[in-house]
Amino acid sequence: MFWQDYVRVESVDEALDNLCRLSGDGRIIAGGTDLILQLRAGQKKTRCLMDISSVNSLCGITHKNEKIIIGAATTHSQISNSSLLFTNAPLLSQACSQIGSPQIRNIGTIGGNIVNAQPAADSVIALLALDATCIIVSKDGLRDMPIETLFSGPGISTIDSTQHIVTEIHFDTVSSSAGSAFCRLSRRKAGSLPILNCGVCLHWNSEENTITQLRIAMGPVAPTPMRLYETEKAFTSDTFSMKLMQEVLNKTPEEICPRSSLRGGREYRKEMAKVLVKKAMLKALEIAGWNNGG
After folding, report:
1. Spatial separation of the C-alpha atoms in residues 150 and 153, rounded to whole Å
2. Domains of the chain
3. pLDDT tens, residue order, the chain (294 aa)
4. Which residues pair with 7 in a beta bridge?
5. How many Å apart are CA 180 and CA 183, to the nearest integer?
6. Closest of 246, 217, 254 to residue 232, by C-alpha
7. How many CA atoms lie within 13 A of 57 on its CB side?
8. How far apart are CA 263 and CA 152, in angstroms?
9. Please, what's the b/e burial string for 133-162 (b: 16 or more CB within 10 A of its CB; e: otherwise)?
10. 169 exposed, middle or buried (CB, 10 Å; 0-12, 13-18, 19+)?
11. For residue 289, is it left (φ>0), alpha (ψ between -120 and 50) or beta?
12. Residue 218 pLDDT
């Protein structure tokens, strides 16, 4: 066996007590769609799996004080089918609806997607664009961490699931003057990792014809999920036009450093990054009220 014990816990405190008692020999599991494969391949090891999928406080989606709060054990299917998110954070619904297959989406959780730390993780790219924050608990206490700080390399998270538990993800609702979009490039619609994915969230000032706030997240174009800060800065530095769009996009490949893989070569990804960012930007602008003809 790839583990000796399997324990289903009923509370976060119970899970933390068990992790502390096992001193690194226990590991948190929720959906396990990635972790089980990693254990079988010998990429990760554990003596005891601690299942948190039945902890009620870690499941569900709520709206409080202009913030959306998602429990870390909420599944991708629950997120993609949420009317609350469809209204207040549609790009996250779109992203989660394209993860894996229906079976994966029914089991896999958003917290697990974050901890797995893949540069191409669809939900993470959307959460980066939403400027999300995660609550992480351990025996040392509670930390509120920007999602961007939770990755240190491909498949390497700063969250140690033998000691830490992600309990919730939260972010501001998207206002009426804002627009958001998620776009994905893959070889087929279902069951495949993306060649590229992009999330955009912006605020549009129709009187001045400017983008006042902008977040662009993209993967896999670096060792970790990435915000395109230079591209964001260029888009918000002047009155918006299609000419500005083209000028900014021509420089976007300089900001990213994708690697070649079976899903796409480095130069191909650099060129297609311009296409995907443009597509996501135009969708978000239209939602925010931009009129290309007028």
Report:
1. 10
2. 5-51 (3.30.43.10), 57-171 (3.30.465.10), 179-288 (3.30.390.50)
3. 788 999 999 999 999 999 999 999 999 999 998 899 899 999 999 999 999 999 999 999 999 988 999 999 999 999 999 999 998 999 999 999 999 888 999 999 999 999 999 999 999 999 999 999 999 999 999 999 999 999 999 999 999 999 999 999 999 987 767 899 999 998 866 567 889 999 999 999 989 999 999 999 999 999 999 999 999 999 999 999 999 999 999 999 999 998 887 678 889 999 999 999 999 999 999 999 898 755
4. 50
5. 10
6. 217
7. 11
8. 22
9. bbbbbeeeeeeeeebbebbeeebebebebb
10. buried
11. left
12. 97
Q: How many residues does the chain have?
A: 294
Tokens found for residue 33: 């769609």
Name, in order, each residue with C-beta under 8 angstroms of 86's C-beta and a sequence gap of 6 or more: 93
Residue 9, Cβ neighbours under 10 Å: how many? Answer: 20
Q: Are 114 and 169 in contact (CB under 8 A)?
A: yes
Cis amide linkage into residue 220, ω under 30° from 0: yes
What HEC string does 38-56 produce?
HHHCCCCCCCEEEECCCCH
Starting at the edge strand that comes first in sequence, how are the strands of the sheet with 26-29 ordered? 5-8, 48-51, 26-29
Q: Token pair for residue 150?
A: 């939770």
